[in-house]
Specification:
- This protein has eleven helices and 15 strands.
- It is an alpha/beta fold and about 350 residues long.
- It has a single domain, classed as 4-Layer Sandwich (Metallo-beta-lactamase, Chain A).
- Strands 1-2-3-4-5-6-7 form a seven-stranded mixed beta sheet. Strands 8-9-10-11-12-13 form a six-stranded mixed beta sheet.
- The two termini are about 40 Å apart.
Length: about 350
Amino acid sequence: MNAQEAQLHYPLGDVLPPSGGSIEIAPGVKWLRMRLPFVLDHINLWLLRDELDGPTGKVQGWTVVDCCISKDESRAQWEQIFANELEGLPILRVIATHMHPDHLGLAQWLCERWNAPLWISATDYNVARIAILSNTGFGGDSAASFFAAHGLLDADSLEQIRARANYYPSMVPAVPSRYCRMMDGQIIAIGGRDWRCISGYGHAPEHMALSCAELKVLISGDMVLPRISTNVSVYDIEPESNPLTLFLQSIDKFSDLHADTLTLPSHGKPFKGLHTRIAQLQEHHRDRLAEVMQACQASPCSGADILPVMFKRPLDLHQTTFAMGEAVAHLHTLWFEGKLRRVLGGDGIYRFQVA
């Protein structure tokens, strides 16, 4: 546990849900944990006890929050959950906090299997549909060209990025043809309790967290994680965006929640200390921005030049693509603030220097 983590409280300590099982983390809220084939090797999913109107009265069942990637192993893990954790009741609806593969990948499969609707923001639903049909933003020629324009010139890395044209649809092969739209401030009644949608930007197009004041529970998705900082990246599909500023503004929206809120993150363990964690994330990015500014004061920097400034550990290619997006995001924040200016060199690389 690092020094910042020590300022948070983990009510369950190091206890984790068993494979194929769950832990009831709050009344009517079950915590599931599934494996991922990445360095970030797991995702937390949630079962919420629910009831919906049916043709002959109330139907008892569950709402699922987030889905895991579309892989045989993930489906097998869900089969264990169906057998062990649903108490003989159906899944009534599927909520996806956002469109990233570990959150949306199995939505189509779950919705078809249980004849359940998908709930998601309109922006993320439609971006997911675009991503399934193209390689923009996640691999292929466009992504490789974007990274090259920001200084990533290693030929082998660029070739591997070009070869990842099927990256998103390999984990999200389809989404349901219809959905229910989630919007900021919307109240969704789940199991007789009100859950408020809180939109977030910078990590995903329109992320939706869910807050239940009665339970003092926040399903934070990827917006607030206890151990790591959420990836905030510029992508080729929106090459002049300012996602870091949007992200920092978004997490401040959680500051009005109760100080004793139990935060249920998508990665890591449920924790208390939400206000402390928000302050830590704000400070973390202020420190990174200061480092980036200092580097650009010394000499003009591309996104690739910023990688060793922000990331002190070795990175594999998967991590490098995320790190490049995040490096450019920090450069863009300073650019949008007027502290840096962007110059396109004769070599086709963008570099940022003091304005």
